[in-house]
Amino acid sequence: MESITLKELDNLNKDEIQLIDIRRNTTFANGGLEGAINIDKDEIFAYLDRLDKDKKIIIYCQSGIISRDVAVELKKMGYDALNLDGGYDSFLISHFANVERNSLIEKSIRKKFHKVLFSRFAKAINTYEMLKPGDKVAVCISGGKDSMLMAKLFQELKRHNKFEFELVFLVMDPGYNDLNRKIIEQNAKVLGIPITVFESDIFDAVYDVEKNPCYLCARMRRGHLYKNAKDLGCNKIALGHHYDDVIETILMGMLYGGQVQTMMPKLHSTNFEGMELIRPMYLIREDDIKHWRDYNDLHFIQCACKFTDTCTTCGNTGSKRMEIKNLIAELKEVNPSVEANIFASVENVNIDTVIRYKRKGVKYSFLDDYDGK
């Protein structure tokens, strides 16, 4: 036998097995099987000393495709290795047996996580004037932890009903595989989110693109979201970017793009007149989102791309952001205020000390009025 089902795994003595998650560490950080250790599929044969030959080795990836080949190779090398059928996705599906948890999840937002989640959500909306009476907002749900939490926070805000606004919970299917689509739908059911799904063929359109397919995919998805939101009568779309995304974007722009810029809390659309993008999670920390997720035993997909198991470009894109995450973590050990300072840096720009800058596409230099000062 070269494979094992999740049910069979549950019946094994946990002291006699070793769980190995071979997905990328950025993916594993967003959820894995309890007790699993993470060794990237590209590194596992270089770290055989981390495998316990006295135990049954259970290998899994996202859907059980890549891990099957790894298990076969380990078996040839003398390890008692088995592949987990269905991979981590099979575990996600198994957690949808109890869908009567929504009231407890909502209670956690109102009580335990009120200060770090809902209060910061409301503060961002008020500080950056994201909502006005009569707005109709398309809450865009990708299937990950951030957008799912954003939907719940919008529901909580609607419950307070300080002024009238409408919500549409919009899910775009750009070509998900059937299992990813099912996980998104089931998570929405567990969380009590009445989603509206529309389909596109974006994944197929970017499949053969060699240079920056993830960037192109993101741009195309944004355009489809705007169009469908507008067709539904919405004047705003809401995305789930959070505080950590903001500070990472600032550093990525400086270190990789040679420019000073930030991820704005709201933007007018340049291609869809009357439409606006808002980011109400702007002041919420990612660690608090993860804490809420884990406290409620929720499990989301990190990347719903149908090429999740085989796409290397997703990993390459994520590696730069992971480098920035690690850099910030190192800096924080020396200066605990570093994250707040990075965030504040783009709120305290002193134009008098900037050599060149752009505004609405026009370039300006300090030399323009230097002799006139």
Low-confidence stretches: 306-317
Biggest sheet details: 6 strands, mixed
CATH hierarchy, class of the largest domain? Alpha Beta
Average pLDDT, rounded to a whole number, is 88
CATH architecture of the largest domain: 3-Layer(aba) Sandwich
Spatial gap, N to C terminus: 81 Å
Number of strands: 13
> What order do the helices and strands follow?
EHEHEEHEHHHEHEHEHHEHEEHHHEE
Radius of gyration, taken over Cα atoms and rounded to an integer in Å: 23 Å
Reading side by side through the largest sheet, how are the strands ordered?
Answer: 8-7-6-9-11-10
Going by helix content, strand content and strand pairing, the class is: alpha/beta
The third-level CATH topology of the largest domain is Rossmann fold
- State the helicity in percent bands: 40-55%
In DSSP terms, counting alpha (H) and pi (I) runs of 4 or more, how many helices? 14
In the residues, how many domains can be counted?
A: 2
How much of the residues is beta strand, in percent?
A: 5-15%
What does the overall shape look like? globular
Characterization of this structure:
With 373 residues, the protein is an alpha/beta fold. The chain has two domains: 3-94, Rhodanese-like domain (Oxidized Rhodanese, domain 1), CATH 3.40.250; 102-316, 3-Layer(aba) Sandwich (Rossmann fold), CATH 3.40.50. It is built from 14 helices and 13 strands. The chain has a six-stranded mixed beta sheet, with helices on both faces. Helix 3 links the parallel strand 4 (56-60) and strand 5 (81-84). Helix 11 (243-257) packs across helix 13. The radius of gyration is 23 Å and the shape is globular.
